[in-house]
Structure formats: structure tokens, C-alpha cells
Amino acid sequence: IWNMTHEFSGIVAGASGTGKSTFLLYLLTLASAQRMRVFICDGKNDQLASLAREFLPYDRWASGSESKHVIHYLLEVMKARYQYLQDVRKESPEKIFEGARSDKYLPPILLVLDEGASIVASLSKKEQAIYLKELQQLAQMGRAANISLLLAFQQPNALSLPTSIRDQLTGLKVILGSPSQISPETKRMVFGTGVDLPLTTLYGVGTGYIW
């Protein structure tokens, strides 16, 4: 069970064939059960994009380079929510310590971004800088606006997942795959340094490590 109210944002890594897409579909089911408004960015225009095309409005999903528009839109939503909260607290100072989660006019939002490395690769240098800056702002400031991020990668790297973004993904950390499939770099990018993966007798699709 992932209680997204308390454990905000997350990261999922898994090589091809380890069950990452199915696991993401499961997490989307959890998000739906918690009445979250879901946005999807699929860097490879694969399974998540196909799902979004069938079940989401056109302005709540994108694939490839078009994902930059979803990120920008959510950034504008975040700014509008900050302004709304500022106005509410100005009118009612006693609400200054109330968070966005307690406001019925600010429904929780979950952005699921799959294969961020492909999104970055599809953008020009200038577009990459803007995209990563806006994604960083969402990661750092989204919680106060009730906006959560779930980023998924086959192999996260420093370009597609800078430290400034990775440090904000503290709620859920998952690597799918057996120990032999998990590279030291992936382990470091997801769980940080100084973490040893415990030995396991479990192997096959759908196995892995969760924090």
C-alpha cells in the first residue's frame, strides 16, 4: 500500500522485461482509488500512452517531446494553486498552517512520467534546459500545491534525473529485477549511496526491491 498523502512522490526503475509497466499500471489503480487526478507522460509512446489515449482527456497526457507541454501546464497549475492558497490565508489568517490537502478545491494531482531519458533525448539543448528546470520546480514545490510526481526509468542517469529532482522523490523508491539485473548506478540513483541490497531467493518478472 502506498499512502500518497504521507509519502509524496516516488521513483521506479526497472530494465526491460522486469515488470515495470505492469507495476506502473498497478500504481495508477491505487491513484484512481485515492481519487487523484492523473497526468501521464510517456517518453517512448508505449503502453502508458496507449492507456492514456483511451481513458484520459487529450490535455492530460503526452508522449515524447510533447511531454514538455504537460510539465509546463502543471507548473502553471501549481502557481495558480499557490496564489489561491495565499489569498485564502490572507482572508483567514487562522488557516496559515493548513496544507493544500485539506482544501476541497485543490484535488490531488499525480504526474506519472515514464522513460524521462527518452523525453530529454527528444528535445533540443534549449528545450532540455527549460524542461528540466520546470520539472525541478514541480518536484521541489509541488507538495505544497498537492501535486505529486512518480518518475519511472529503465536506467536513470544524471542527465534525465538530476540530483535536484531525485532528492525530492522520497516517498516511494522501487527497483524491479533480480540483483544481477540491477547496475550499481541504478541502485545509487534510486536508493542513494551506502545501501546494500539484501540477498534474495526470488527471481523473475515482478520481483525487486522497495523502500
Describe this structure in words.
This protein is an alpha/beta fold and 211 residues long. The chain has helices spanning 20-33, 47-55, 67-91, 116-121, 125-141, 163-166, 184-191, and strands at residues 10-14, 37-42, 61-63, 109-114, 147-153, 172-176, 208-210. α2 (47-55) links the parallel β2 (37-42) and β3 (61-63). The chain is globular and about 60 Å long.
Spatial strand arrangement across the major sheet: 3-2-4-5-1-6-7
Rg for CA atoms:
17 Å
Number of helices: 7
Sequence stretches where pLDDT stays below 50 over 5 or more residues: none
Major sheet summary line: 7 strands, mixed
Mean pLDDT metric: 90
Order of helices and strands: EHEHEHEHHEHEHE
Query: How many E strands?
Result: 7
Strand content: 15-25%
Helix content: 25-40%
Measure the end-to-end span. 12 Å
What is the approximate shape?
globular
Structural class: alpha/beta
